[in-house]
Every structure is written in structure tokens, then in C-alpha cells.
Amino acid sequence: MASTQVLKRRVRSVQNTRKITKAFELVASARLRRAQARIETMRPYADKMLELMSGVARASVSKQRIPLLQRREPQTTAILAMTGDRGLAGAFNSQVLRRVFALGRELEAEGQTIRWLVSGKKGRSTLRFRGYDVATDWTGFSDRPAYTDAQAIAHTLTEQYVDGDFDRVILVYNHFDSPLVQKVTEQEVLPIPEHLLETDEEERRDDAMRGDFIYEPEPEEILARLLPVYLETELYRALLESAASEQGARMTAMRNASKNAAELIDSLTLAMNRARQAEITQEILEVVAGADALEA
User: Fold this and answer.
1) Sign of torsion over alpha carbons 116, 119, 124, 126
2) Which CATH number fits domain 27-251: 3.10.290.10, 3.40.50.1100, 3.40.1380.10, 3.40.50.10140?
């Protein structure tokens, strides 16, 4: 059995660790609330953007001339892994990377070439550690992304897609459901899925009742300008979802760590009390044995 002094030091060490994990939990909880508020704020904007884009697409005569809508036979696929810049978030990063590696193996089995893109220091370091060639990476904003960060990613993706560096882009990120649940999601962001531009019969009847619109400039030109903005919006939404997922996963992980630390403190305290009781008992036995020896 460990001595009382050793157990005391271990209790103090675990108590200090518990203070740190509790502080991390509180910080993650506050950041999670802000991230959720940002998601709720941008959803109306994203919905209106999609509605506007669909309306312009209905008036377009030909959409095939727009580069972001042109579909090519996929020979090279870019996989964009959206991870965090820091750890201490449970399985937040690892579950995205597991899905990314599995997706890469599936596409390579189909004969496609993979171009690795990553957002977040954790994803970048893991990919490079495993020997993957990271073509482009973005770091430094995983916990508090700004719209300008999404614009930077979208600009790079658009430029490389138009230049023919790859034929499609698949985004892999954590979708935020709740602080306890984050679902790994795959989303093809380039080329822009054409089903987003399709409309149902009811919407077409509404357009007919409202009459024809006069567009200036031409609908194709307007749509060509809207599509990059839509891509930026989708990437920004994914960044916000990932940020909220990261804070939720970190809050849950730190809460579990604090709970485990409390249980360990109770266990060590019990062991320390038993060790102290054993020492006291031993001292009493030694005193009694000494008194018996004097009387003899």
C-alpha cells in the first residue's frame, strides 16, 4: 500500500487536473452557445440565397456554360476534411479522419486519384504523419470561423476546379445535432448539385401567376455570380456546424474527465484514510509492545 504522503500528492494532483477540466468545460459551454446562435442567425440567409438562386435558374436558358455547374467524369476527387485546431475534444477529430480515410480507399478502389485538402491543424498533422500529400490546408479558425475564412476556402476550390485540378469536391465534417451527438457528414460541394436548382410544380405555378420577370443582366450571368456566393455560404455553414460540434464534443469530454477525476479523488481519499488508519494502528501496536517489554 502506498504511503499517506504519496496518496496526498496524488489527490492534490488530481484535484488540480479537475480544476483544469472544469474550466475547459465552462469555456466550451460558453463558446457552444455562441456557435449555436451563429448557426441560427445564418440559416435564414442561406435559405434566401437558395431561393434566389433557384428563381434565377428557372429563368436561365442554358446553365451548362456556367463552370461551377459543369459535371465531368470524375478522374480526380478532392476530399476536404474539416477538423479542429486543438485536441481535448473526444472523438471529434478522429471520427472525421476515419471517414476521410475510408472514403479515400473507396474512391481509389474505383480508380480515382485523391487530392487531399484539410481545414484544421489536427487533420493536417494526422494526414502528413500518415504520409499523405496535403495539397492545401487552412488553419487557425476552427473554433471561431468567420465568413472571410469560408470565402478563402471557396475561392481556392473554385479556382482549382475551374482549372481542372480535380473533377469534384467532397466535404467531410461533423454536423451538430446536440452537445452529445455529432454526425459525420459527406457533402459534394463541387460541382454545384443541379437538384438544388430544380423547382416543383407549385413553385412554377406561382411564377406563372406573378408573371414574367425582366432580368438585367441576363439570368445566366446573375446565376454565375450567385453560385460562388452559394458555395461560400455552404462552406461557412459547415464551418459553423463543425465549430459547434467541436465545442459540444469538448464540453462533453471535459465533463466526463471532471467526473472521472472526482471518482478518482474519492478512491484515493479512501485509500489515504485507510493508510493513515493502518499507520496509527501500527504506532499503537508498537507503543503497546514497548510497554509490555518494559513491564517484563
Assistant:
1) negative
2) 3.40.1380.10
